[in-house]
Design brief:
Layout lengths: L15 H9 L8 H9 L4 E4 L8 H9 L3 E5 L3 H13 L7 E4 L5 H13 L4 E4 L1 H4 L2 H8 L3 E6 L19 H8 L5 E5 L4 H11 L5 E4 L7 E7 L3 H14 L4 E5 L3 H13 L4 E4 L5 H12 L5 E4 L12 E6 L6 H8 L9 E7 L1 H12 L3 H19 L4 H8 L14 H4 L5 E2 L1 H13 L6 H9 L4 H5 L18 H13 L3 E4 L5 E4 L1 H8 L5 E2 L28 H18 L3 H4 L2 H10 L4 H4 L7 H21 L18 H11 L4 H7 L4 H13 L7 H7 L2 H13 L5 H8 L6 H16 L1
Parallel strand pairs: 1-6, 1-7, 2-4, 2-5, 3-4, 5-6, 8-13, 9-11, 9-12, 10-11, 12-13
Antiparallel strand pairs: 14-17, 15-16
Bound molecules: zinc ion.
Zinc ion (ZN) binds next to helix 16 and helix 17.
């Protein structure tokens, strides 16, 4: 049988301050660290909720080092275990002081670890929950003198958290097997009241001391921007990043592909950016991470895989290009900004399209996960739509009360407060309904009652006979109003949502008091994000430019000029610049070759070849009319840089058959032709003579070529109308037009 020391109380007399200095080199404890350490050394179960960067690990490392026996640290991330162990070892001259046990060790390594443990010099043993549930390992651990159990990332216990790990729910059972009297310290950087409750119940913490640090990050500025189409959003983003002048930032997106696309687009617009995601090989990832850490690139565009274990204190902004899956995720990710306590800006682009995407992903999950996931997304949406102080809503979510007068305009809603309206009567109406429904129904049902909407459920409960039924109809407000009112009432503490009972609304004391004696109450209602003109799709290279010109007078001038230039050069006008490009010129007023080549459909070559007269004209026009040029003259699509296009250009250079080029990127032929057209239209030559005859016979090529030489519009459908009687297909026309543009226009 196991022999075990009883080490728990032995270490209470140590001088913690000098231990801190000697072992870790710090002169003083942060916040509640010392009380936490005393709690666990004093033999009490301890529960620590501390935001990332608050010095959480020290809370179990120091007690482990000064206690007899070895502390078991349960941690979910195998990748970070080694880092943790290395860190502890760096404070000591004996490597056996810390070890880890997980599936990454081979038999020989595991044997060494066990030998060290039996010698007794090891103070910290990191274990993965999977390792802990193996019977042989439990038997071995029983033979060791164990000082206490630390459960790191304890939120993994709860299905209500954002990274649930089923093995975590077995921890208590294992502790019972090893030694039921062992003390537990549970730690997490994020936990809503519901998750906190789950952790305590599941680990069966005995009268724990609970330490909750404030989640308020006073130096961070939060804002939400409606996402209105990809091009506008990217333009907005580029302008924002350029305004930050060389400071570091992270952009989070939904998937791997969009990290690459976005990084390429930012690069094309003069922002030093790289993509980062789990699909890259380790070497590339390490290299890009280094570039970012060293400040050689300013922006890293990443999936949520990025940031775990990254400690860069001077990240000045975190942008969410897509809606995060939960407030926990949002909080963690924005939390990477401004670790040094200085400036940190957090911008989230919100669109209903993104929301639908998330909901769509959720529909593919198993039912249990879906329900929870949907609720987490709902909370995220409510946060985004709220016109309350962002801080107040965030902290409310984590169970903290916050007086928003302290925000100091560090959020968009405090900077531009929405007008508040008197909601005394409508609040009264909702509270009455909740009361008459005996606090047994969730928000949708309550709103249906208030608005007097009859349905079978309401009828079966005979709730249409309640006094409050239809009481709110007289206010003639829409659903958005009522849902947002209920949300605000929660934040104001008049009601609360019982999460254990599927969101049933309950009255708080404040709410009951209000019912007895209603008073004037002014609240700002939620923002309403209208559906945006987002074109969908993640291929930013395809983002269309604005269809209409800002300056019709200039546009007319440019059209005339185009005609003149075309005549001089003996080409069709559309060959010089297409209409979209002219529209954009009459909006952006380019006056240098560099600016002109940022117009969509204009390459640098084309700008030099045809642009001189256009630039001179625009320059005169700008002077004569005192035009103020738009500041955000930055947008450039990545026609020449996007990966697919580069691939096509290179493949055609190598004279690879078009079918093979298409299948190489799993494109359909028409997609390939479309891409090729965009390439030549923006001024890059494609020599397709090597393959043209596979598609069009020689005489037809000549006919089509001639046709375009005479065509005023260059329009492909018009060409088809004329040429189809000669048995020429649309596809053939398209190909020859590519040849034509390549040879004549470029
Ligand atoms: Zn605020």
């Amino acid at each position: 049988m196991a022999t075990k020391a009883a080490p728990k109380k032995g270490a209470t007399k140590v001088n913690l301050k000098s231990e801190l200095k000697n072992r870790f080199g710090f002169a003083s404890f942060k916040d509640e660290q010392q009380q936490i350490i005393q709690s666990i050394l004093g033999g009490t179960d301890t529960f620590v909720i501390m935001p990332t960067g608050g010095g959480k690990s020290l809370c179990y490392q120091l007690p482990a080092l000064v206690s007899e026996g070895v502390a078991l640290v349960i941690s979910p991330l195998i990748a970070l275990m080694k880092n943790q162990v290395d860190l502890v070892r760096s404070y000591s001259n004996d490597d056996s002081i810390a070890h880890f046990m997980n599936s990454s060790l081979n038999k020989g390594q595991l044997k060494e670890v066990k030998e060290d443990l039996m010698k007794g010099g090891t103070k910290l043993l990191y274990v993965a929950p999977e390792t802990l549930t193996k019977a042989a390992n439990v038997e071995f651990l029983k033979t060791l003198p164990i000082s206490f159990i630390a459960v790191d990332e304890a939120h993994c216990i709860s299905e209500w958290g954002h990274d649930f790990r089923p093995e975590y729910r077995k921890i208590r059972q294992i502790v019972e097997e090893i030694d039921p009297s062992l003390n537990i310290i549970a730690l997490t950087a994020t936990a809503t009241p519901k998750v906190q409750d789950d952790i305590q119940k599941n680990l069966e913490l005995k009268k724990p001391n609970i330490f909750i640090s404030s989640f308020n990050r006073t130096n961070l500025h939060y804002s939400i921007v409606p996402k209105k189409g990809q091009e506008k959003t990217i333009r907005h983003m580029v302008k924002f990043i350029k305004g930050m002048k060389g400071k570091s930032g992270i952009i989070y997106t939904l998937n791997r592909k969009s990290t690459e696309d976005l990084a390429t687009l930012l690069e094309a617009n003069g922002v030093k950016a790289v993509a980062y995601h789990a699909g890259l090989d380790a070497k590339t990832r390490a290299k890009r991470q280094d570039l970012f850490l060293m400040g050689d690139v300013d922006v890293i565009v990443a999936t949520i895989a990025f940031g775990m274990g990254i400690d860069k204190p001077d990240i000045r902004f975190v942008i969410h290009y897509n809606l995060p899956k939960s407030i926990e995720n949002y909080y963690q990710e924005t939390g990477r900004a401004g670790r040094d306590g200085l400036e940190g800006k957090c911008v989230l682009y919100f669109s209903n399209k993104d929301l639908q995407k998330l909901e769509h992903l959720m529909r593919q999950k198993p039912l249990s996960e879906r329900e929870m996931g949907t609720q987490l997304i709902d909370e995220m949406v409510a946060y985004s739509e709220s016109s309350n102080c962002r801080r107040k809503v965030l902290l409310h979510y984590f169970g903290e009360e916050y007086d928003d007068s302290a925000c100091n305009e560090k959020c968009d809603n405090c900077q531009n407060p929405k007008e508040k309206i008197d909601v005394k009567d409508t609040v009264f109406c909702v509270l009455t309904a909740i009361k008459q429904l005996k606090e047994k129904f969730a928000v949708t049902y309550v709103v249906d009652i208030v608005l007097g909407r009859n349905n079978s459920q309401i009828q079966s409960f005979k709730h249409d006979q309640l006094k409050c039924f239809s009481n709110g109809a007289e206010f003639e407000m829409d659903d958005h109003f009522w849902f947002s009112l209920v949300r605000q009432m929660m934040i104001e503490g008049l009601i609360q949502k019982d999460i254990e009972e599927y969101g049933v609304l309950k009255l708080t004391k404040t709410g009951k008091d209000f019912l007895k004696k209603p008073y004037t109450l002014k609240l700002a209602l939620n923002h309403k994000f209208e559906d945006t003109d987002d074109e969908g799709g993640e291929d930013y290279a395809e983002a269309k430019s604005e269809p209409s010109a800002l300056d019709p007078e200039l546009l007319q001038d440019l059209m005339d000029l185009r005609k003149k230039v075309a005549t001089e050069k003996g080409v069709q006008p559309w060959v010089v610049f297409d209409e979209n490009s002219l529209n954009e010129m009459a909006t952006m007023y380019p006056t240098s070759v560099e600016e002109l080549s940022k117009i969509s459909g204009v390459s640098e070559g084309k700008a030099r070849k045809y642009g001189r007269k256009f630039l001179a004209h625009i320059d005169d026009y700008v002077d004569a009319n005192n035009v103020v040029k738009p500041e955000d003259f930055v947008m450039k699509s990545v026609v020449n840089k996007s990966g697919k296009k580069v691939y096509i250009i290179q493949s055609i250079d190598k004279k690879i058959p078009l079918e093979d080029i298409a299948s190489g990127k799993s494109m359909k032929m028409d997609e390939l032709f479309q891409e090729m057209e965009t390439i030549v239209q923006s001024g890059t030559k494609l020599d397709i003579d090597y393959t043209l005859e596979d598609f069009v016979d020689e005489y037809d090529v000549e006919d089509i070529f001639e046709y375009f030489n005479d065509s005023d519009s260059g329009d492909i459908d018009e060409a088809f109308d004329t040429l189809q009687e000669n048995d020429i297909s649309l596809e053939q026309i398209q190909l020859v037009r590519i040849k034509y543009l390549s040879e004549v226009a470029n």
